[in-house]
Amino acid sequence: MSAVTATAPLAGTRPTLPELHPLRFALPPELEAPSPPESRGMTRDAVRMLVAHKGDGSLVHTYFSELPRFLDEGDLVVLNTSGTLAAEVDGIADDGRSVQVHLSTQLPAGLWTLEVRTDGHAFLGADAGSGIALSGGGRVRLLAPYAPGPAGVGVRLWVSLIDTPEPLHAYLARHGRPIRYGYVQGNHPLSAYQNVYVTEPGSAEMPSAGRPFTPEVLTRLVAKGVGVAPLLLHTGVASLEASEPPYAEYFRVSSSTAHRVNDTRRRGGRVVAVGTTVVRALETVVDEHGQVHPGDGWTQTVVTPERPVRSIDGFLTGWHEPEASHLAMLEAIAGRPLLEASYAAALDGGYLWHEFGDVHLIVP
User: Fold this and answer.
1) Nearest to 217, CA basis, from 9, 37, 44
2) Angle CA(259)–CA(201)–CA(182) in degrees, nearest 5?
3) C-alpha dihedral over 159, 160, 166, 169, to 10 degrees?
4) Are 238 and 142 in contact (CB under 8 A)?
5) Apex 247 CA angle, 136 and 12, nearest 5
6) What residue spans define the domains of the chain?
7) Fold of domain 88-175
8) What is the pLDDT of residues 260-276, one digit of tens each?
9) Has domain 4-84+189-363 been given CATH number 3.40.1780.10?
């Protein structure tokens, strides 16, 4: 099968979504997971899991540790092995204000897209050509807007040069910390933001659907005859001001993983994607006949109900914020009625949201 390649995106480009009718609901603050389950006296795999069956619309309330019960011999689980960076660094802008720099995506030629924030909000004092002195002797120079932010917010992401006194990953390990949002209580080590199966760092935020996996769950899956295959997609920073479609992200799907996806479906097994990043990567390299090809580069694919899903059968994901663009992907996979029923049941049942929260499994 032929390989798919995609070149780096131009600044200012991002996908254009069709007009959507996103799922709207009120998320009570008490349903925002405040900390990792381990700090709440639980194991990673003890979080709750709502299983939604597309065939009959039934819902099952269980725990993630029971995942092997809902998969069969011959199924294939596809994981994103991207590791989370300590992507937030303190800095001082040229005008003297304290800021936080959120590294987002590494571009070619040593450039990065990044977000500048202050007091939890987008920093409106940034201009092209301005600089930021970072902790530990690093420095950022803002070159040009990568894309405008939501109305009234100004530029959210900048194309930038980063100069550090040691290799960047070593510098971040010393002076950076995981990006943390207001609903998280306390500071947690980078290990709390890593999935157990990561192979290389590169994500600004944790591909969190896979966080509940433990070596024990993976072992039980393999013992049952369920395959596990990796791919890579480095995820960028999310917007806190308004729902936005995802920007271009780097991905890599190996020939081995592409072959295993195609072989699983040919034999009648189910391909279960772990997280929106896995769906985005696979849907980038699947053709109109449902064949997945190896590929790497930059994806601007956005999955919506108007774009059929061709590469997967099942989906494991977290619980997404009201009107989040990822809900369009869930609707494309589950259908609107099952999506609405699942979210109503999760809200009624007190499921927890965000990266340290509970999960949602959609199966045929």
Assistant:
1) 44
2) 115
3) -20
4) no
5) 90
6) 4-84+189-363, 88-175
7) Thrombin, subunit H (2.40.10)
8) 999 999 999 999 999 99
9) yes
